[in-house]
Amino acid sequence: MRSRPWIAFSFLLPAMLLLSALVVYPILYSVFRSTFDASGSSFIGLGNYVEVFTDDEILTAFKNNLIWVIVVPSVCTALGLIFAVLTERVRWGTAFKLIIFMPMAISMLAAGIIFRLVYEQDPQQGVANAVWVGVHDTFAESSAWPGARPRPNADLAKSGGGDFTTKSTASASGPANLALVGVPPKDAAGAAPAKTAQPKPGQVTGTVWLDFAPGGAGKPDVVDKKEKALAGIKVEAVKDGKVVGTAETGKDGTFSLPSKADGAKLRLPASNFAEPYNGIDWLGSTLVTPSIIGSYIWMWAGFAMVLIAAGLAGVPRELLEAARVDGANEWQVFRKITVPVLAPVLGVVVVTLMINVLKIFDLVYIIAPSASQSEANVLALQLYLSSFGAGSNQGIGSAIAVILLLLVLPVMVVNIRRLRRETRR
């Protein structure tokens, strides 16, 4: 090559031209364009960079990128290490590794669509909330008739905290009729017909029912034949601010309270009417970034596992056996031998993931709804929105691109130096 450099140059020329067209020119043009305004006609120097570091949305993107860079490589590498070590001793380890690695075969677009459905707020559609609501309802009782309420100006009225309390006091001489509305007829279709409670000696009786008859033929505050009972409603007798008796309505809507309830006001607690638990707002402003990070880890933990498993296969078994013979337990073997020997592989995984998460765009753009996209914003997404969004300011977009390049360069330099040290060995 020294005697005929033109031969080497002729072989390198196509690659150099391609590299210049696809890498060098875009970088130089981005640096040049970042010094001009939105129209590209006026030179403004570092004005775009000043705006980048003073705009609240872009600063949020910086903060989120920092979270991504710290959390994702650490968690993915830790999970990959755990999976790689544990699957070595599992009989079906290869099958397990295949299952963990399979998400890598899915594109970011497809993964984004999958997790947008997983994180849907409605438990009937979103898998995450369906599981969460199922667990919640296992340990917490749901309300009997969510949304039920008394008619305006009725004897039963709001008394604070979502409770409804009668204005008048109950008496053992006659039944207490507690009429409610606001329950959709389809929800009460399977309920039994309501009955007027009969007086009982020494007890306060009454009926809680849906004061609505199909066709509007019923009379207000009167138990009509076609009206439905509201079963399972808790009724409390309150006297001087203290609960002196409780009861629950039966299938026909009737209830009976002890004699202490005579002269007390009747209260229907808010727990009877609370809306059903609807799960967690995974894509709300608070949890949208952790939720998207979770979907990314689901995809890339398998990548970390495969690389670490390959490095683990090259660990000398004599070292491990010698440590065990010397009395080291499995945790000590893992901490003192396995992890230090795998340090170069772990470094490769961490650096690769750091470079990838700095460029994350697809998942955030697809998963985050428009209402919380600003809270989930990252630099690559902000670059796209600034350059091609409503403002269409390619000067700002180019400045963000240059900053992204500067953020990636140190990681690349560290990786190149590490590779050179490995080749010297």
Question: What's the gist of this structure?
Answer:
The chain has 425 residues and is an alpha+beta fold. The protein is elongated. It starts with a helix and ends with a helix.
Account of the 3D structure:
Helix content is 49%, strand content 9%. It is elongated and about 120 Å long. The longest helix has 32 residues, at 56-87. The strands form 2 sheets. A 5-stranded antiparallel β-sheet has the order 1-2-8-5-6, with no helix packed on it. It has a 3-stranded mixed β-sheet with strand order 3-4-7, with no helix packed on it. It has 425 residues and is an alpha+beta fold. It is built from 13 helices and 8 strands. The mean pLDDT is 88. The chain folds into 2 domains: 40-124 and 282-424, MetI-like (MetI-like fold, Orthogonal Bundle), CATH 1.10.3720.10; 156-272, no CATH class. The protein has helices spanning 5-33, 47-52, 56-87, 93-101, 108-118, 127-139, 288-313, 317-325, 330-341, 343-358, 362-367, 379-388, 394-424, and strands at 156-158, 164-166, 176-180, 204-210, 234-239, 242-248, 254-257, 265-268.
Helix segment tally = 13
What spatial order of strands do you see in the largest sheet? Answer: 1-2-8-5-6
Mean model confidence by pLDDT: 88
Structural class of the helices, strands and pairings? Answer: alpha+beta
Q: Biggest sheet, in brief?
A: 5 strands, antiparallel
Q: Could you give the order of the helices and strands?
A: HHHHHHEEEEEEEEHHHHHHH
Q: Radius of gyration over alpha carbons?
A: 34 Å
The appropriate CATH architecture of the largest domain is: Orthogonal Bundle
User: What is the total number of structural domains?
Assistant: 2
**CATH fold-level name of the largest domain:** MetI-like fold
Subcellular location: Cell membrane
Keywords: Cell membrane, Membrane, Transmembrane, Transmembrane helix, Transport
Region (Disordered): 143-176
Biased composition (Polar residues): 165-174
